[in-house]
Amino acid sequence: MGLGWRGAAGTLRIRTEGSWHLLVTLLLLCGFWKANSQTDDGKSMYFWETGPWGRCMGSDCGPGGSQSRAVWCAHVDGWTTLHTNCDQGQRPSNQRNCFRVCDWHKDLYDWKLGAWNECMPVSGRTFGALRPFTCSGGEEGIQTREVGCVLNSDGSPAEDAICEYFEPKPRLEQACLIPCPQDCVVSEYSPWTSCSKTCGTGLRNRVRSVLVPPLFGGLVCPNLTEFQSCKLGPCTGPEGMYSLRVGPWDPCALPQTRTERQVKRRRGKGQGLRERTGVKDPETRELIQKKRTRNRLNRQESPFWDIQVGYQTREVICIHRNGSAVVRNLCTPRDLPLTIQSCVLPKDCQFTDWTDWGPCSKTCADPRSPRGNRSRIRQVLQFPVGEGAECPPLEESEWCEPQGDGVPPCSSYTWRTTEWSDCRVDPLLSQQDRRRGNLTGLCGGGLQTREVYCVQANAELLKYLKDLREKDKNAGQTQRQQKPSVPPLLSVTFQITASRPVENKLCEGPIPNRSQLCQIPCPIDCVVSPWGAWGPCTFENCDDQAAKKGFKLRRRRITNEPTGGPENCPHLVEAVPCDEPSCHDWQLVGLDQCIPDEEKPCGPGSQLAQVMCVNSNGEEVDRGLCSSTPVPEPVPCKVPCSRDCVLSDWTPWSTCSQTCSSKTIEGKQLRTRSILAYNAGEGGAVCPNSSVLQEVRNCNEHACTVYHWQTGPWGPCSDDPSASSLNISTVVRNRQGPCSTGMQTRKVICVRVNVGQVPPKKCPDGPRPSTVRPCQLPCKKDCIMTPFSDWTPCPVTCDAAGNAMKTKQSRKRLVIQQPSNGGQECPEVLEEEQDCELPKVCPGFRWKTHKWRKCQLVPWFLRQNHVGAQETCGPGLQTRAVSCRQLDGTQADIGECLKFAKAMPAITQRCQLPCQDDCQLTNWSKFSSCTADCVGVRTRKRALIGRSKKKDKCKNTQMYPLSETQYCPCDKYNAQPVGNWSDCILPEADRAESTLGLKVQGDIKECGQGYRYQAMVCYDQDNRLVETLRCNSHGYIEEACIIPCPSDCKLSEWSNWSRCSKSCGSGVKVRSKWLREKPYNGGRPCPKLDHINQAQVYEVVPCQSDCNQYVWVAEPWSVWKVSNVDLKENCGEGVQTRKVRCMLNTIDGPSEPVEDYLCDPEEMPLGARESRLPCPEDCVLNDWGPWSRCSLPCTRINSRVREAYTLRSPTVGRQCPDTSDKEPCSLNLNCFNYFYNITDWSTCQLSPNAVCGGGIKTRMLDCVRSDGKSVDIKFCEELKLEKKWQMNVSCVVECPVNCQLSGWSVWSECSQTCGLEGKMWRQRAVVQASQGDGRPCPSQMEQWKPCPVRPCYRWQYSPWSECRVESVVCGHGMRYRNLSCFVSDGSREGDGLVDEELCSSLELAVDGDKQITLKEACTLPCPGECYLMEWSDWSSCVSICVKGAGVDFGSVQVRSRAVLAQEPENLQLCPDQSWESQPCTGGECYEYKWFSSGNASRPLIWCQRSDGLNVTGGCPPMNPAVDNSSCDPPCLMPKSFCSEANICTCEEGFTEVLSLIGQLDQCAPIPILEIPTAGDKRGDVKTSRAINPTLPSTILPGRTGRTWYLQPYGPDGKLKMWVYGVAAGAFVLLIFIVSMIYLACKKPKRPQRQRQQNNRLKPLTLAYDGDTDM
User: Fold this and answer.
1) Cα separation, 512 vs 414, whole angstroms
2) How far is Cα 601 from Cα 603, in angstroms, rounded to an integer?
3) Residue 492: which pLDDT band, with cuts at 50, 70 and 90?
4) Which of 6, 1, 135 is nearest to 1570 (CA)?
5) What are 926-948's pLDDT values in tens digits?
């Protein structure tokens, strides 16, 4: 049987053992034959082998390269041998020329892909026997194509290696799918027709139609008609055997000859007319001439129509029922139909040759779109007449490029912008900020806008080139030959002016930004320090001390420089008048030790004053300047003796109690001292009273009259009259920056504090501010504008009467630069409007029809032999001329009407010249008017003419009615809404985007009350759609609606600043805002909540607390309270106390007491001390001085000391204690290290008037002691520690920019020209996306509203009439249909017939077909004739597919004509049935299944489509074709058949799946192990079937493209080595098997006894070996 595949993938299975033996034997024989053939020749065992060609090498690109390959000699067994063993004459070349490919060849060569060939099936290719093929969905195929490398320039072929260098070779074949054969599918039969005869033997017919045509080689359609004989009974009378049959009209022809009589009579009439006209008077002749001229004008003989009226005839014969012609007398006598008639001789359309190509529409060079188009036309010489061929297209166009040298560049357009507007902060404010009112002085981040407009970028260049061409054109020949000395394009100078704006749509590319963030610098306020102390009384001017007037001054300094300089700060100096001024004075530095007089050891003495010379500012100067002032005298003092009372030194004077003095208040200062030791009895100086221990003196004795200079604001900068004329004349306009120097003035007055202005002499002249300063005058900026744009085009609109309606056109200009600083102002008119010039003639063309000519009959000599013909009457033909006119009636070229007018009117029509016996009537009158709608009737009338009034047959009102009556029209209309409500639309302002210029619309009202619309529809009483005006409606229902306004997030006001987190050094203070109201309706979002501070917005600012702001102040020690009993001595152990208070420190010293907790408790002085009061004659020391500072670093090696000095020396024998005290330095006890600590950055600080923008983040340095305590910064400064930190850094607070939208575009055209569902749309775009916490963009970027409902009118055919054959039974006739106007609401449902006038504005076309056909020839079958029925309706669209497999081969629909027979004898004469198909879209995919019913004896089986339609064809064939009637139920499952045992069973390869009741349920395929083969890609038939399409295929014929993995032949066609090995192995195995059989069958010899043991092992060994082989 051989090898075969079974299953879907072709599983290789061994059918019989014999097949394998046969294969092995064949391979052995083949191998032996091959080996013998190769050993016949001694050298044939060796052959040349070649390697692949190497890379093409060479120095030049192109054909000059060379490539090489390896060549060696090989043995047939595959091993390499010496070259001498091979035939040297057959040695292949190892070098050849080649084409060296370079990278630039990529543009020269390319792959040329051929078209795919026809898809060839691969199902027939099988390895082994053929198997029946069952198509399921589609058959796999392979299609191939040619691919080659070509030179792009001329398409010549090149080596494939060139193209392969850049791109792999495209595949040569691919898988494809061949559709399965689609059998013809027909419908069920219709019911039987009635019998074709009323008596005798006739036929009944039933027909069916084609639903799916046969495709892809499917079975042809079966007969569509079934016949059945019928006999209703014998005929009692003679049977109608004969009928008159009318033949078709012959072609139209001209009469060949005219009789001489007609010619003579026509000549005679002409002569007589001339004779008669000759006798008439001139007036009559002139009237006749005018009438002839008028008639000639009305006829308008046109050169485009050559109308010749001819005649045509037809045949009328009498035929028998069997179809044979007989003598006409046998037919029933009746009026014969017309057999001759007038006709128009057909003439084809004649036209001229094509004109030359017109100029290219592209006359300039444009790299982006280089091509234009050009056209050519041909003229009509003769329009088609009659049935002549129609005219072909009269115009054609093609692509073109501008030709010639010097093609100018095309106009290019670019965006331009106006200057940025002034920076404004208010657009960034939230609703909450706006409501706070005061918006002046805003600064910081803002927004500025500009307008963007489109201009022609190269207008000046094009103008220059145009002028240059004009100049060249006008110049003479000699002038053109002269070479210009300068290249013309290089000498172009353009005047920089504003370009004229053009329409925005001309510009492409991104639109420049129309808004941007900007910064208004915030003014920096002046910050001054507190007032310093009053200085000494000094002269106003030390250089002029003649005046006795003096002042005490106090000053403050600027700590923060303001914007605009220090002139904007408040006054920095205050003055008080004083007496005895001096410019220089001695200042006491200290007092030396008290030295007793006369060199005594104790007693009265003096202290020398240590002084220095200072000026009025307290600065040390040369001592010589104080020479005019006496040096302070030595201060008297006393050194106590051993028995004297000892007093301490005076404390420093306290701060003055008043800053000034008046009659009621005086300033006082106090100083005190205390008793350190009492005197000894009577011998020593007695201690003074307590009143003497305190001294008071006056201070600040100057009057409380403080004066200072007060300045007003600087005035505007104005021209300095003292400046030179040069400055004035060099004012340059339109420049940024200063242009000249001007002057500013301000008012300066002397002010007395708390009083007001006083004379200037009260204030010192020295610190008087200046009243004038120079300033820079800004440049004047004139208004700069664009020129006016071109006038907008004038739309030509015409009313119904064809008169042009008035319209307007406008033009516009834009302000590019606003004027400033006194520049020229802008004109007020930015837009102009004017009336359009009305065209003389409204554009448009119409056909004009002229009078019908006389009705032309067939010449009498041709019809005089016809029965009933009369010479002067009968049917004829008349023609008329048609011309083209403009709407105003002037003559126009006929081509214009062909393009723009409606369909051409008919130029011929049938006519009837009445005969004497005919009834002649007038035309119908118009209908009478109705008094009211829906009431009464209206009538129209006509009357008999001439002799017809007297004829009785004409008076028959049934046949010739003279009046018609109809009910008055009943026009009732009702309106009703339709469709959905539109979006809510705000009332329109000037919101639409301009066509010239784009700008930011600013704050636009996007909310509030608007209106939404719903379309209204109007119906008449017949439920037909009519114009909405009939219902007194403008087309809409309008309803108010609300667009909610967005509400921004609302926060509270700023809280108060918290206290500084540290009382000494650097800390932070915080303030916050809290959420009051969340945003809604798209308002500005809230800032993100800070979870640490639980505040919506907060600010953190570093703060510095002065460590010396609060100081401890200790009063003097009290008198000793001695605890010794011996009060006489008044000495010994005792206690001193004093008050210690916390006081606010000022520049003048501690001023007022505050709470103790404000002072540092660690620094609090002792309020009490225990010590020993020295006894008389004891040594008395003063209080210890301050400790010296420990040197750093702090170590115990270092120490600090304090000292005291002796106030009273002891008596002889007594010692003074040490005057110095020393203690070791201990870290963090009495010795501290200091370092700077940097605080965190503050939040970004803005000006109070700023919303966003640039700010400053600050941080502070803090001096920290080594024990962690913050101390005064001076401790670190004294150590001169390095400050390496930046204390301020700029920062940016993101600006909350609201989303900026463009204006709404204009409303679009309606989406539908008519109907109920039309919508209009408008859009807007995002100009500036929101930033920061700005208001986000709304989601609604487009709006719609319904269009007014308009009725949809269309032309539609009525059904064809029955075939009409005049006055006879059968033959060739005509059928007719009407073209009517229908109205609908846009859907195909609910059409209504309306007056044709409503469709008059439409193009005359039905469903897009402009070829209107209202009549066509038809055939009315004669009795007994077999004929084709009319075409059936088009079937529903059917998809040629496989349901569920996703395979679709397109959709088709079909119609058919079946045969109808009436006579059994004529069946042989029947025509063939016919069908025709056409492609369609959206076809339904159907399935076809067998169904059965009925009992076992007469089962009914039919095919049904999945939509429930019973059909013939389409179902899978019953296979095998056996009678299923023997199985009950019948075997309808796929792959099933009825077996001989009358049981349904499955075909080979399928297994039975039974139902619960034991019947066959389905046939399932038997799963088989599949061996995949090379190239098997059935899973995806769309991919390539070839792994390497360039290799020769090894597929054997007859299989489906599968290959073995083990191929016996190599690529060179020789047997592979493994074949020999297998053959040898098989041969050895065969010998072994034969040997084994021989040994098994051989009779064994009786063995000797000695060897029996060895022989016993043999069978076991053989058995074991055999088992191993298995």
Assistant:
1) 10
2) 7
3) very low
4) 6
5) 888 887 767 778 899 999 888 88
